[in-house]
Amino acid sequence: MTLSLNYSSKINKIRTFALSLVFIGFGVMYLGLLLKNIEWLMLIFFLLGMLCIVFSTVVYFWIGLLSTRAVQIVCPSCEKPTKILGRVDACMHCKQPLTLDKNLEGKEFDEKYNEKKYRNEINEKK
Ligand SMILES: [Zn+2]
């Protein structure tokens, strides 16, 4: 079984994404402030920043919805209660990969997640 140790819970990932969006939003609005000499550009940056923040709120609501749909189990590794989203997910506490369907193990762990992309986006804005 070759599973990545860097795999983290889907809910945690989405939460990180939502939090990143808030920072990106504020970053974009700050850029707008720097460009206050060009009024229309400042307005565009402010609008973009607002959109990011509004979108992150939507994502937070979405996490709430997902959490209610997730299957709650007790992690066999750290014995804490955690939630599984979809067929395969990782423990929220110890990042132990968990699955509800052993036939699907491996395949979904190859799924490409965008976490690194989000991080790059934050770095670009700084
Ligand atoms: Zn665990």
What does this structure look like?
The protein has 126 residues and is mainly α. It has one domain. The chain has three helices and four strands; from the N terminus they run ααββββα. It has helices at residues 10-34, 39-69, 115-125, and strands spanning 71-74, 81-84, 88-90, 97-99. Strands 1-2 form a two-stranded antiparallel ribbon. It has a two-stranded antiparallel ribbon with strand order 3-4. Strand 3 and strand 4 form a beta hairpin. Helix 1 (10-34) packs antiparallel against helix 2 (39-69). It is elongated. The relative contact order is 0.18. Residues 107-126 have low confidence and may be disordered. Bound molecules: zinc ion. Zinc ion (ZN) is lined by residues 75, 77-78, 80, 82, 91, 93-94, 96.
- The arrangement of helices and strands along the chain is HHEEEEH
For the record, the count of structural domains works out to 1
What overall form do the CA principal axes indicate?
Answer: elongated
| Percentage of residues assigned to helices | 40-55%
**Quick one: how many beta strands?**
4
Number of helices: 3
Query: How much β-strand is present in the residues?
Result: 5-15%
Question: Order of strands across the widest beta sheet?
Answer: 1-2
Instruction: Kindly provide the radius of gyration, computed on alpha-carbon positions and rounded to a whole number of angstroms.
Output: 18 Å
Q: Main β-sheet, in a few words?
A: 2 strands, antiparallel
Bound molecule types: zinc ion
Cα distance, first to last residue? 39 Å
- As residue ranges, the low-confidence spans are 107-126
Q: Average pLDDT, to the nearest integer?
A: 79
The assigned structural class equals: mainly alpha
